[in-house]
Amino acid sequence: MSNSSIRLDGKKILITGVSRPLGIGATLAKRFAEAGATVAVHGYSTYDLTVGEHNSATLFTSGQTNSPMTNEIPYCAAKEAVSNLCRQAMTDLGKRNIRINCINPGPNDTGYYPGDTSRWCTPDDAADLALFLHSDYAKCITGQIIASDKGEGFGGNFVL
């Protein structure tokens, strides 16, 4: 079924789980593209056929547990849910040889904060940790929330 009256021209859409040609993700990608959206897709076509150790998962959280983040209640609640997901999923995923960890990158100089960022980490620092966690060197690390923040956290001084 198609509805050509719905247009998504100019919209940018990311669809994950597009591995099976007859699946929901693949169908969504096709229909969104037909409606004029720019669609980016992600899938792992041999997912169901693989056995043994799998691509580990890395989630990202924030410093909400270090101190209050003024005016950021929805953001903090969502990030704490991500941390909890990591802890809860590790046992079930571990049975499938999938490691899951969560990175708290702390304050990072990504160009959005106009103040002094001289003591902050950089996105490369978070990438270094993520690369390590996905390597064989981290084969026994799972279910961890790892702070990569120079020991600074937010220290209660971060206000947007």
Strand order of the largest sheet: 3-4-5
Task: Give the CA-based shape.
Answer: globular
CATH topological fold name of the largest domain: Rossmann fold
Number of beta strands: 5
Instruction: Give the helix tally.
Output: 3
Q: Report, as a whole number of angstroms, the end-to-end distance.
A: 46 Å
Quick one: CATH class of the largest domain? Alpha Beta
Mean pLDDT: 83
Poorly predicted ranges: 155-160
**CATH-derived architecture of the largest domain:** 3-Layer(aba) Sandwich
Q: Determine the strand fraction and express it as a percent band.
A: 5-15%
Helix content: 25-40%
Biggest sheet record: 3 strands, parallel
Q: What would the keywords be for this entry?
A:
single chain, 160 residues, alpha/beta, Rossmann fold, 2 domains, three-stranded parallel sheet, two-stranded parallel sheet, 3 helices
SSE order and pairing:
Blueprint: E1 12-16, H1 24-34, E2 38-42, E3 57-60, H2 73-94, E4 100-104, H3 123-134, E5 145-147
Parallel strand pairs: 1-2, 3-4, 4-5
Q: Can you give a write-up of this model?
A:
The protein has 160 residues and is of the alpha/beta class. The protein folds into 2 domains: 12-48, no CATH class; 52-147, Rossmann fold (3-Layer(aba) Sandwich), CATH 3.40.50. 28% of the residues lie in helices and 14% in strands. It contains 3 helices and 5 strands; from the N terminus they run E-H-E-E-H-E-H-E. The protein has helices at residues 24-34, 73-94, 123-134; strands at 12-16, 38-42, 57-60, 100-104, 145-147. The chain is globular and about 55 Å long.
